[in-house]
From TrEMBL:
The keyword Secreted does not apply. PANTHER family: FUCOSE MUTAROTASE (PTHR31690:SF4). The keyword Phosphoprotein does not apply. Keywords: Isomerase. This is RbsD or FucU transport. It catalyses: beta-D-ribopyranose = beta-D-ribofuranose; alpha-L-fucose = beta-L-fucose. It holds the Pfam family RbsD_FucU. SUPFAM superfamilies: RbsD-like.
Length: 144
């Protein structure tokens, strides 16, 4: 199921353990990484310093590594998409999951997003160095 340029061993391990329907949280540097996901979820810390590693780089790499069925993002305070969400949607517009389908995009308000991220399907948390608020994504793994 894994394909692409990803080299990070803990991230590869976490993705290899994730099957169809599993969820991966890609979170900005402001997200509560230790309490905002199930205790059993693996955590990969890519937040070396501010801006490194940015959420867009992680999202693009993951889209080249596994099939993404759906991306749910945290809506901003006004209920819309943040700048980083718009960037990611644009960059991933041509990615397809199994059967050639486009990735489905949806949003949840902040509190509903936190609740979804604490669900048992979340098996991996990726902490990025992204400092722009509302740069949080919950990815659902698809099939080839």
């Amino acid at each position: 199921m894994i394909r692409g340029p990803l080299l990070n061993p803990p991230l590869l391990k976490g993705l290899a353990a994730a099957g169809h329907g599993a969820r991966v949280l890609v979170a900005d540097a402001l997200y509560p990484h230790s309490t905002g996901a199930p205790p059993a979820a693996s955590r990969v810390y890519l937040n070396l310093c501010e801006g490194m590693v940015p959420v867009l780089s992680v999202m693009e790499t993951l889209a080249q590594t596994v099939f993404l069925e759906e991306v749910t993002y945290m809506a901003n305070a006004e209920g819309g998409a943040s700048e980083s969400v718009l960037e990611c949607r644009q960059r991933l517009a041509d990615h397809r999951h199994g059967g050639g389908q486009q990735i489905a995009w949806s949003s949840l308000d902040r509190w509903a997003f936190y609740d979804a991220c604490r669900g048992p399907e979340v098996c991996l948390v990726v902490a990025t160095g992204e400092c722009r608020p509302y740069s949080n994504f919950l990815l659902t793994i698809g099939v080839p």
